[in-house]
Amino acid sequence: MSNDLTLLEKFQIFRQKYFPERQLFLRSEGRVRFVTFSSNFQMATSSAVLVALGWGLVTSYHYLTRDQVLEAKNRTITTMSAQYESLSNDFSALEMEVERKAEQLETRQRLLEEMVGVDGNSAPRPVNAEPEAATSDKAPAPNTSMTIGEKPSFLAEILGAGTAQAAILSNTDRRKNLLARLEQMQHRQQYLAHALLSDAEAQIAKIDQVLEPTKLDNEQLLQKAETMVTAMGGPFVPEQDFQPVFDENDHDTFLQLINTRQRLEMVTMVLNSVPVGQPAEKYYLSSKFGRRKDPLKKTWASHYGLDLAGWPGTAINATGPGTVVHAGWFGPYGNMVEIDHGNGFRTRYGHMRKVRVKKGDEVTLGQRVGDMGKTGRVTGTHLHYEIWFDGEVRDPMPFMKAANDVLEIQGRNEETSQQ
């Protein structure tokens, strides 16, 4: 039956049982008075007493245990202070280590940016700097393709990323995080350096292949460049050396890259002096280079050039930029122009009917220097064309056959096509 009672009815039974209405009788001077205490008043008074008693117990407990809490807090603060000091000392040492590695990586980064043309003035040369395994790595890493003017301090980026996580990472984790980021940058630089090195070596090999028919090679051009470059000077400013960062040999690639690029630059500089243009607008080959029967004496003799026959007055053009060192009559050559192209290369244009330049003139590739004729020791109208290198005469035919490849290496193929 009791299960059918409502909550209100149960409360009413509880109140009547434990807090029934009570009366306090007071008798004084023959008079009787009474004070009635209702159930609600009794319940409110009991609740207030219980709250006050609970509050007193809690405050008493905290007061009694306050010294123990303070002592525990002091121990915690002391421990944290010691840990912080250890962390600070460890991070100072780590910061010096990171700074040293970052400075070396920044030096390498500047070198790589200069080599790929990231200088703000020229478009970067496309280089496959990373293998497929590296491109699939989504881990955060410093940007290696920023321009010099845009990229922030690499050291600031690395240290900033580390200190932002100092609150949640342990010393060991922070060290691993910072050095891992630096090592990741070093690997990316290695990939790019290897790509640039392979590219430079391929260009040198291509130059050797192109020059093979001319019986010239890179070593000859390098030796000539070293003997010709004499007008140099300026204050001595030592360049920062490349030191190992993570591995004792991880700087070898960069040293090899510098040497190979310098070799390529010197070879290309000399190659720019190679005469590879067409000496005449229209012609046919009437006599080759080498041993032949002399056209006048009819005996065997050496012929140190090519005879290119054509119509009288056909334009004779400079086969490369240079300085005119002779313009006029030159014995059996008749009217001849000789041009010094630099780095040991010279060309001669003989038997011309008219000379259109004078000694000391600076000429460009394809510039008209005279007209085809038959002056000097000849049997008919033609151009006698010679190429000299380092004081020795060379067969012009291999140079003319290699013209397109050499012009492409020189970057002047468009220049000749417009002439």
From TrEMBL:
InterPro entries given in the database record: Cell_wall_metabolism_enzyme (IPR050570), DUF5930 (IPR045974), Dup_hybrid_motif (IPR011055), M23ase_b-sheet_dom (IPR016047)
Keywords, in A-Z order: Coiled coil, Hydrolase, Metal-binding, Metalloprotease, Protease, Zinc
Top-level lineage group: Bacteria
Coiled coil spans: 84-115
Residue ranges of every copy of the DUF5930 domain listed in the record: 7-93
Cofactor(s) for this UniProt protein: Zn(2+)
Chain ranges of the M23ase beta-sheet core domain: 302-396
Residue numbers spanned by region Disordered: 119-145
Name this polypeptide is given: Peptidoglycan DD-metalloendopeptidase family protein
